[in-house]
Amino acid sequence: GDSVTQMEGPVTLSEEAFLTINCTYTATGYPSLFWYVQYPGEGLQLLLKATKADDKGSNKGFEATYRKETTSFHLEKGSVQVSDSAVYFCALSRGLTSYDKVIFGPGTSLSVIP
Amino acid sequence: DAEITQSPRHKITETGRQVTLACHQTWNHNNMFWYRQDLGHGLRLIHYSYGVQDTNKGEVSDGYSVSRSNTEDLPLTLESAASSQTSVYFCASSERIARDTDTQYFGPGTRLTVL
């Protein structure tokens, strides 16, 4: 079945460090790919998404590129801030018959220290 | 502004009791979802609905039920609460227009403890 794998962390970085959170997926067809972020005590919110191969999603300085050849959607940010401390979820939504359902990875906890 | 709300935000109950968690959205979305979030498991889908009178089981539906009598609400009922159902529960909604617009909008969550 479809699945999403991501590094679970926790990841601890100093402010202004470079961030990479790896995400790989298994799915039939051509899924849409997402990164959601969950700040402490809150629900998830969409960070960025990409709907086809080679698309790059970007938001708030975060970027991820849909790589079909490596089935990956790694999240990157050039310079993290303390306010980026959160849990990040990679997710996919696949197919025309089930596009309304989303499969989430386990989440990666990020802590950014001053 | 449109939003999705959940109540209560925190609930403590005893084993065997029936519990209902409320979810209300003002996005006018057709699709609504219930997830549970547990350490090491990420989010797991409990039930979902594509519209009024439509409900479907997710991957961890045993012991839970939902009903959809209107567009705005999808209450989640635990028929007989068990300690294994201690978790954080999230409700979400999305608009069913096209494949590219399947972003989900999440509520703030309900932390349920079953003693």
Protein described:
The complex is a heterodimer of chains A (114) and B (115). Chain A is globular, with a radius of gyration of 14 Å. By secondary structure, chain A is mostly beta strands. Chain A has no helices and twelve strands. In chain A, the strands form three sheets. In chain A, strands 2, 5, 6, 10, 11 and 12 form a six-stranded mixed sheet that branches. Chain A has a four-stranded antiparallel sheet with strand order 3-9-8-7, with no helix packed on it. Mean pLDDT of chain A is 90; it is low at 95-99. Chain A has strands at residues 3-6, 11-14, 19-21, 23-26, 32-38, 44-50, 56-59, 62-65, 75-77, 86-93, 103-104, 108-113. In chain A, 0% of the residues lie in helices and 49% in strands. Chain B is mainly beta and 115 residues long. In chain B, 0% of the residues lie in helices and 50% in strands. Chain B has no helices and eleven strands. In chain B, the strands form two sheets. In chain B, strands 2, 4, 5, 6, 9, 10 and 11 form a seven-stranded mixed sheet that branches. In chain B, strands 1-3-8-7 form a four-stranded antiparallel sheet, with no helix packed on it. In chain B, β5 (42-51) and β6 form a beta hairpin. The model of chain B has no long low-confidence stretch (mean pLDDT 91). Chain A binds chain B through residues 32, 34, 36, 41-46, 49, 51, 89, 93, 96, 99-102, 104-107, and chain B through 31, 33, 35, 40-43, 45, 48, 50, 90, 92, 94, 96, 99-100, 102-109.
